[in-house]
Specification:
Length: 399
């Protein structure tokens, strides 16, 4: 029996989905803040399952297919914070100690994965959208978040779901995926069963509950100083000072600021879905997933505002899954395919196994390599197999 475990590190919960020969055979979920305080809870769950042939690890912004044992232990923590989290360990520790909610997931991810490394778990990191060869380079320039690894994973699951639902081959699946999670939103375009474009959480033109999405460069230049906390502490929660998702939704009815932020969120998703019709001319469906996307007040608005694009439906996920989010299921599906299981043809068709590099490889701003992060990038990039798109170009500009 082929057993694959997918671990999705959500902003609110860490979900684990176990597939046995491609079928759901185990699930678990743990609060992210709890996992940050005690990462051994997640490790213990994984060990209690026992005998997984592959664990698909929390992969953050995504990298080319990289196995846990391929990264030397003496650089592993630096490598993980650099390419998976695009941060550094001290900054995340500081933010977590200050109670910054978005930092808990980064802290938990690092602790859990390092424990797996020490225990020699057979683990793999998977790509984000920007790593795929199915997206032309010109779409990637000066972008990082075209859809993180969890957004890629849930879209892979979406291609499988629509292939079965409409009884068509993978190459006949054309659709737009809307993922609206607790912290971040994303819209991914699929043409002929392959991801061809994407807009991730920090690139969306409007806020999610935790993140602001993209910012006008004029705002960046006059504020001047940003840190990682601004990525996950600048959305509707921070704007309204309402830190419970449930309370925020209740306030939308009678709080002008909460209502305005909600409308901005919806508008940004609708706008990007319409923009994706330039690459997916006749989508068969718009699939919606995620903690926020599944709420009636969100889904019903999206269904109404997008009805002229395509039928809008909620993602169903894998048969047999009752507990975990679709993103965790997607992680496991990718792992099963990489192992040559039930979903091997899907993974090969979508060219997930041909992904290259890191999410930082297309940053071509001349100042990048002179920053602290840029210097770390130069030092650690050699531990990935493929050649970076930007390094020689940027070095030439600095000469």
């Amino acid at each position: 029996m082929r057993k694959v475990l997918g671990i999705d590190p959500g902003s609110r919960s860490i979900d684990l989905c176990l597939l046995c020969d491609g079928e759901v055979c185990g699930e678990a979920s743990i609060d992210t803040s709890e996992a940050s305080k005690d990462p051994y809870k997640v490790v213990d769950i994984v060990e209690s399952i026992g005998g997984s042939d592959l664990v698909v690890l929390p992969s953050g912004y995504g990298v080319e297919i990289t196995y846990l044992d391929e990264i030397p232990e003496d650089v592993f923590i630096d490598w993980f914070f650099m390419f998976i989290l695009i941060s550094d360990q001290e900054e995340i520790k500081r933010l977590a100690s200050q109670g910054v909610e978005g930092a808990f997931i980064y802290d938990a991810m690092a602790k859990i994965v390092y424990e797996f490394k020490k225990r020699r778990v057979k683990g793999v990191f998977i790509p984000g959208v920007i790593n795929l060869p199915t997206i032309p380079v010109y779409k990637k320039i000066n972008k990082i978040d075209m859809g993180a690894a969890d957004k890629l994973a849930v879209t892979v699951l979406g291609v499988h779901e629509l292939s079965e639902k409409h009884d068509v081959d993978y190459e006949d699946v054309n659709y737009i995926h809307v993922e609206m999670g607790y912290g971040y939103n994303a819209v991914i375009a699929v043409r002929n069963g392959r991801i061809v474009d994407g807009v991730g959480g920090s690139l969306m033109p409007g806020p999610a509950f935790l993140t602001s999405g993209s910012l006008d460069l004029e705002i960046v230049q006059f504020i001047k100083r940003f840190d990682k906390s601004d990525v996950f502490s600048s959305g509707c929660s921070s704007i309204t000072k309402i830190f419970s998702l449930e309370e925020w939704f209740r306030k939308i009815r009678d709080n002008d600021l909460a209502k305005t932020c909600f409308e901005s969120m919806i508008d940004s998703v609708v706008k990007i879905v319409y923009s994706m019709t330039s690459v997916v001319k006749d989508p068969m469906e718009i699939l919606v997933s995620g903690r926020v996307g599944r709420r009636d007040e969100v889904f019903n608005i999206l269904r109404d505002r997008l009805k002229d694009v395509a039928p809008v439906d909620l993602m169903r996920g894998l048969e047999g899954s009752k507990l975990v989010k679709e993103t965790a299921q997607g992680y496991a599906v990718v792992g099963d395919g990489l192992l040559g299981g039930r979903f091997e043809r899907l993974i090969r068709h979508m060219k997930i196994n041909e992904a290259t590099g890191s999410s930082l490889d297309y940053v071509v701003l001349p100042r990048f390599l002179s920053t602290d992060l840029g210097r770390r990038y130069l030092r650690l990039r050699k531990f990935l197999k493929s050649q970076a798109y930007n390094i020689n170009m940027l070095k030439g500009l600095l000469l």
